[in-house]
What does this fold into?
Amino acid sequence: MVKQMTNKEVTHFKKEVLTALDKYLTSLISKGESSKATKIITWIRDWTNFLKFENKFQSKRLPALQRGSIVSANLGFNLGQEYGGPHYGIVLNTSDSRRNSVVTILPLTSIKPETNLEHLEHFKLNLGDELYQLLGLKLQTKKAELTEKQAESNRQYSDIMERLSKLEQSLLVEFEEYSSDPITLAKRSQAILSDMDGITKDKESFEQLIDELDKEEEILKNIARQVLKMKKGSIALLNQVTTISKMWIFDPKNQTSVLYDIVLSKETMDRIDVALKNYIIK
It folds into this structure.
């Protein structure tokens, strides 16, 4: 239990701790363990930023996570064999609501070329390539949707440019016919210029659409990257079940997120239930 301290004592204690931390990180770097030092520094930075954000965090802004949902989360920098860093996890909660600020997950690791699936450790469960298949299906669906939207945007662009060209031609004709009659020219040109203003607004809307399509294309690239990570399949780490704040979840954040609605089948979740029961109870 932490004793109550005066402001002066807290300030002194802070200096002691930060000095000790600085010495430890410096020693890691000098011993050639820069990677470990970087991970610790990154974790402290992220943790500090989240502490600042904690009072503003509203879990209701995140989607509710059903059992079997896949999330990508920062598990921190932990000791020994505790899993840490950014990883995928399976939601184990039987129910969830957007008001819940924490979630229990079963961390995953991808199957590596050197992984011996015939002799997995007793705390590992081979889930096969179901996650890869789910992400692959989402990738195909999103690709088809994006292709259709891009084709529609091309049609809109052609229509805008065609209308603009016709109005420009009409305006040239009016100038040639009524160049000697400024009043009539002004009246006749007004309607054309008004139409051109309308096209300009349509063009602005089109440019917004292009920006949205660019964002969707980036989401598509993210999905493709996630798919590749799980190409050989995934393994559940039964000994690493943990409860985390939803603040640590990278994905899904909303309906456009890569992992939104990526949920493992009931059959797979039943296998996980049995495996966890055997690992923890038996």
Summary: The chain is about 55% helix and 10% strand. The CA atoms of residues 135 and 141 lie 10 Å apart. The radius of gyration is 29 Å. The beta strands are 70-74, 86-91, 102-110, 124-126, 234-237, 242-245, 249-251.
